[in-house]
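Notebook, p. 212. Picked up where the previous page left off. The plan for this session was modest: take the two constructs that came back from the sequencing core last week, fold each one, and keep the raw output in the notebook itself so nobody has to go hunting through shared drives later. Recording the first one now, exactly as returned: residue sequence, then the structure token string.
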Amino acid sequence: MNNLLTGYLFTIVALSLSEGVSGIIGAAADNVKASINLSTARKQVEINKLAMLADKMGNDSSRVVGFTIPTEEDDEEYEDDE
């Protein structure tokens, strides 16, 4: 009978601790997701600022984000090289 009560109390304590640990892990995962979303939002704001600056200067905004979509003129240049 004494071992049964000891096992019961041990189980209650272990379940409480495991619930607390899972809550901490869940909170840490939410924190990581929030930091990723914040980083993405900051980068998007920076891209928008660069795009607006390029529009004010009269440049093509597709070149601001670091890559360009080839135009028909670019395709013709590559065909001439071949």
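Okay, moving on. Second construct, recorded in the same format:
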Amino acid sequence: MRPRIQQADEKVRFTAYGHIIHRYLRYVLIRCTGYTNDKSQVQRMAVYALVTACLLFDKLTRLGQLGSLVEMMVKIVGEDPTWECNTYRWAETHDREPVFVLDERMCEVAGAINALDQFSRELLVLHHIEGIEIATLADAHGVSTDDIRQALAEAEGELIELLHGLSSWDGQIKPDVHALLMALASCIDQAWADALATYAMRYVAAWND
């Protein structure tokens, strides 16, 4: 009986890993724009963040801590001075290929969302881009739906305020946050992102062999 139980546990665990990678992949890619838009460097950052989040998932006391863990790993790799030096050395001999194809407006949207605090950014991406319902977010963070609804409204207001602080948005009508974030997500090289998700899952599987 024990091998069957172990196989069932592994199936549940890998299903959870798949959900984590799917839910946070675009969040991580957007977050990486605060450091680089180069595919080879983003791949390293994203795989580290996503695989670490999967492997440490069982250590979390609640699902709402997952975003903070992902954020911490992106920050650690993104601010690694050794990685920065290697980036410059690599750039001397290679052409950079972007993850996001961004026009000026989308660059400003990416910059504005990365200027928010981690919780606000996470709510905006998970709700508007990943389509996660307010009730699900509330359950993950152990708070009421009213709390999440209020936090989401505040995050949207802060994003709009940041955009209005930019000259190109002066005099604009109130930006549609949902439309802007969906437009930002559409700038991702989706085929590459899907391959990256598969790549991350292979690392997780290799660790558990």
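Notes on construct two before I forget. The CA atoms of residues 59 and 186 lie 33 Å apart.
Flagging for discussion at group meeting.
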